[in-house]
Amino acid sequence: MSAVVDFRPSRGRSSRARGHAAVPLAPALARYVAQVEALLAGAADEAALAARVAGALGELACERGLLTSEQRLGDAEHYTRHLLHADPDGRFTVLALVWLPGQSTPVHGHTAWGAVAVHEGRPTIGLYEYEPGYGALPRQEIQCVPGEVSWVQAGIQYPHRIFNASDRPAITLHTYGRDLSSNPTGINILV
Description:
CATH topology: Jelly Rolls
Strand order of the largest sheet: 1-2-9-4-7
CATH class: Mainly Beta
Oligomer: single chain
Helix content: 10-25%
């Protein structure tokens, strides 16, 4: 299943992507972006950074009215990515992903640290253990609720997948420690 459907900045809520003029951010998103910038300025340890970003992202996920109606749209064929902010220096990207019932990612790791928070719905995270020579072995499935957060470090040591096994749409917010504005799937390492 293809993972990319819509990665264009949504009108009125996106920020400065490289080569594009700045668009004002919604107040809650602007506060979150400032928090991430401050965390990056003081970060010495990638694992601690991802955990701190996840904490701030959990607060953002609880904001009502955060997304425009366009940013809440999914697609019947694939889960949908909506770009909320691309750091002009390429240090991080903030996305909203819309999951219609039955949609999922393949099992994967990441090329950079990442943080995820549930904004709406009850998506499930499948956790795997990577065994060289065997690949990703299932370990646990966790059904998540709004406001719940998780984070990962770069690499394939912690493979996972996200899927929507419920009968209602789900929306997750993601922040990754690299620029994804020109290559949205460049974050994933398939296992």
